[in-house]
Amino acid sequence: MKITFSSSVKSFLLSTLFVPTLFMVPAAVNAEDVTPEKAAEHYETLSPKMRDGYAKSGHPVSTEYFNWDRYTKAPHKSSTHGGRLVHNYANDLAKAYGKYEDIGTLPVGAIVAKDSFKVGKKGVKPGPLFLMEKMEAGFAPENGDWKYTLVTPSGKIFGETNGHNSKKVKFCADCHNAVGEDQDYMFFPEEDYRVVN
What we know:
By secondary structure, this protein is of the alpha+beta class. Helices cover about 20% and strands about 20% of the residues. Strands 1, 2, 3, 4, 5, 6 and 7 form a seven-stranded antiparallel sheet that branches.
């Protein structure tokens, strides 16, 4: 019996072959076992190292996102980002992010950033910086014209939609497409972690 897959399924399966190490989290410590207070403490200690690493990428957002409005009270577990603990930031054009499920449609130039870290039996380690930037109509209509960029903790651009290693970040779009236009392709933190404006 021969099994065939559609091209989108093949693409998704191939893209996942490139990312397993980015999304493996040590089983010894579950992010859910880290209290919000402890997560915030870890973040404050680790964030300078994270920012220094991301800055090596030369990506302009890597040196400014942490000055934007933060929409999380404490780092929270994000199952869509490898079970890592993340903080959610948004630039001025993305202020509607704080409306969460009532976000509407963000304008061109809106950027949402999530920096991340993981807690394991060998300590606390930086994770990738995840970026979503709303581009001009036609940039990626199948993804709501969002550009996804993943910056590694060592400052390498792992992939960027319609740019360097674009196929490696297709899994980002595939995941966010699950919520689609109703939430402008956005996922949001659990209500207990949200900063309400």
